[in-house]
Amino acid sequence: MRKFPVQISPSILSCDFGRLSEEAQRIEHSGADAIHIDVMDGHFVPNLTLGPRAVEAIRRSTSLFLDVHLMMYNPFDYVEMFVQAGADSLSFHFEATEDVEDTLAFIRKCGKKAGLAFRPETSFSMIPKYLYLSDMVLLMTVSPGFGGQEFMSDVLEKIRLTREYCDRHGIREGGIVSQPGMHSDALAPFTIQVDGGINEETGKACIQVGANMLVSGHYLFSQISLAEGIKTLRNCS
Ligand code: DX5
Ligand code: ZN
Question: What residue numbers bound the domain in which 156 lies?
Fold first, then answer.
């Protein structure tokens, strides 16, 4: 089986919210590729978390890539706020807006990576057309809203179908379609991020079917060494 480089994005939701800047630095020094920041609005999901001010504070403490996951309605209206706060990528939910294409385009126009997130129950058939318009898809492997939930293995098939579609249609990094004659390694693989209940075992299952970016909260922050946990996840396949 082909091996993808795997990126690890620890979820700050499992950190001590009273020490966000120290936690962000700890994540950076532990060798993560990004920090996953969950934004919840109390409507799209039954929970409230962090907003742009917190993203701004985290931005001041680290130069690590800030991977912001918006679990909120009307994400378009908040794009500029999160961009100004220092987000590097913004992922919003397919199920949360009727303006999916405009929102993806606007995030890119702001110079940031655009991600589209899908709840576990949303079917694969909704995904393909957006692969050409986004930098990443985020496939939720739990119902969004809370950390520490159990991984839903039904989603593995959707991950597999998404990677298969990318392979079959030559979709690479940033939704770019590789052209005949182009060296297949000229562009990195398209980013398929998985989020929810990821540990050594479930992470391995996701990587084996094509995921190349793992978000993990509960598992990583319950390890004695965050750095070891990140290393284990990165090499778990
Ligand atoms: C859940 C969030 C996740 C969460 C993952 O709605 O989107 O990012 O923090 O945490 P674990 O790894 O604990 O499931
Ligand atoms: Zn998340």
Answer: 7-234
**CATH number (domain holding residue 229):** 3.20.20.70
User: Does ligand 1 come within 6 angstroms of the Cβ of 210?
Assistant: no
**Other CB atoms within 10 Å distance of the CB of residue 145:** 17
Whether 1 maps to a domain, the answer reads no
Domain count, the chain: 1
Residue 63 within any structural domain of the chain: yes
| The residue type at 191 | T
Question: Probe ligand 1: pick from 9, 70, 119, 218, max atoms within 8 Å of CB?
Answer: 218
Is residue 230 a part of any domain in this protein? yes
Residue-by-residue DSSP string for 21-66:
HHHHHHHHHTT-SEEEEEEEBSSSSS-B---HHHHHHHHHH--SEE
Would you give per-residue pLDDT tens digits along the chain (237 residues)?
A: 556 799 999 999 999 999 999 999 999 999 999 999 999 999 999 999 999 999 999 999 999 999 999 999 999 999 999 999 999 999 999 999 999 999 999 999 999 999 999 999 999 999 999 999 999 999 999 999 999 999 999 999 999 999 999 999 999 999 999 887 777 677 899 999 999 999 999 999 999 999 999 999 999 999 999 999 999 999 998
| pTM given for the model | 0.97
What distance in angstroms lies between residue 167's CA and the mean position of ligand 2's atoms?
25
